[in-house]
Amino acid sequence: MKALKVSELNTQIKAILEQTFLDVCVQGEISSVKVHTSGHIYLSIKDEDSNIKCVMFKGNARGLKITLEVGQSIVIMGSVSVYTQKGEYQILCKSITLAGVGEFALAFENLKNKLQTKGYFESFHKKPMPKFPKRIALLTSATGAAKEDMLKVAQKRWNLVHITLFDTLVQGENAKECIVANLALADSFFGTKEGFDVIVLGRGGGSMEDMWAFNEECVAEAIYRAKTPIISAVGHEVDVFISDFVADLRAPTPSAAMEMLLPDKFEFLRIIDEMMSAYSSVFERYLGQKQRLIGQLKEYFKLYNFQSQYINKREQIQALGQIFVENFRNILEKKQGEIERVKMLIDVAFERKLTHAQMECERLFEALKASNPRSLCKNGYAQISKEQKVCVLQDIAVNEVFELSDLDLHIFAKRVK
């Protein structure tokens, strides 16, 4: 038989063990435990007769919900591996839970007791909900059914509200960091005109593992430190989370959160209708009282005969008005007749004056033509003048000397007869 090297033997044993024990579940008592700075956890478990080493690497250790201590009875889920350098075998732990107690239940109770001791659940820390919220920050998954349910209820109940969605991881390894970051972001607007009246942290139902982000201490811290009122609306009505205890208000479901937060517009419309009916009734009674008072005042007026005096004076005024109208009409007709006569006289005088003026114009025009030397001279005539004044032959006496002139000549003449 050929001799094997130590490493070869350990390698063969490693192959056999790891293929045979791929998935094991082991219960035992912790005999030693050490958390390395790298994040790995090294421990040993034992029973009455044996001891075995175990290791939980950083990736799985991040999801551990309990603090491991010597003496605890635990249940390990994992696989068997061989460390060939030392020829030792160990269990590679995938999960560790306390024997007889659920891991999540224990972690929940531990954190609940811790936060309760710190006073995070006290009522005097709770901020009141706004009666008529105008701006709501909704922290949930943009693709989840819870978002649609909440928006549908909000639209039905009170569509005067503005809802801003902060797309938030609500399950998985990075869910708690995303929830904390979005809570801080939404709360950062507090005190500004863009500030939110309330923050709704919500998601639908699921397994405890999927919902565990709402039981994380960092999420509880973020809710407690926020200045904006917060509603925790996670899971179904029977589900209870750490966020429910720390938040200012717990809603049994996401839809219920909107029903608790937003007023019912139909209820307010009903109230308004009732108020209008009551107002109408009161107004009618008030109007009836005033009408009765007016009736009494009318009776008082009749007693003092004010109405009769008024009717008498009104009839006198109407009669005087009729007389005034008739007199004014007569005066107007008389004056119109006088105006027509004067107009006729004016027209006759105007025609006479116009005819006389036209005749005078014609005479003057003829005289002007006769006295215009240039027009006369052009037609072979001479201008007649006496003592340097233009005249006509009829103005010259017998044996009187006068002047004749045209454009070229100037002579003296004498009338003989």
UniProtKB/TrEMBL annotation:
Domain of life: Bacteria
The EC number(s) this enzyme carries: 3.1.11.6
Domain Exonuclease VII large subunit C-terminal: 120-394
Transcription regulation as UniProt keyword: no
Key words of the record: Cytoplasm, Exonuclease, Hydrolase, Nuclease
Cellular component aspect of the GO annotation: cytoplasm; exodeoxyribonuclease VII complex
Catalyses which reaction(s): Exonucleolytic cleavage in either 5'- to 3'- or 3'- to 5'-direction to yield nucleoside 5'-phosphates
Transmembrane residue ranges: none
InterPro entries attached to this UniProt entry: Exonuc_VII_L (IPR003753), Exonuc_VII_lsu_C (IPR020579), OB-fold_nuc-bd_dom (IPR025824)
Signal peptide as annotated in the record: none
Compartments in which it is found: Cytoplasm
GO function terms (MF aspect): exodeoxyribonuclease VII activity; nucleic acid binding
Domain OB-fold nucleic acid binding: from-to ranges: 4-96
Protein family membership: Belongs to the XseA family.
NCBIfam families membership: xseA
Role according to the record: Bidirectionally degrades single-stranded DNA into large acid-insoluble oligonucleotides, which are then degraded further into small acid-soluble oligonucleotides.
Subunit architecture: Heterooligomer composed of large and small subunits.
Protein name: Exodeoxyribonuclease 7 large subunit
Organism: Helicobacter cinaedi CCUG 18818 = ATCC BAA-847
Gene that this polypeptide is encoded by: xseA
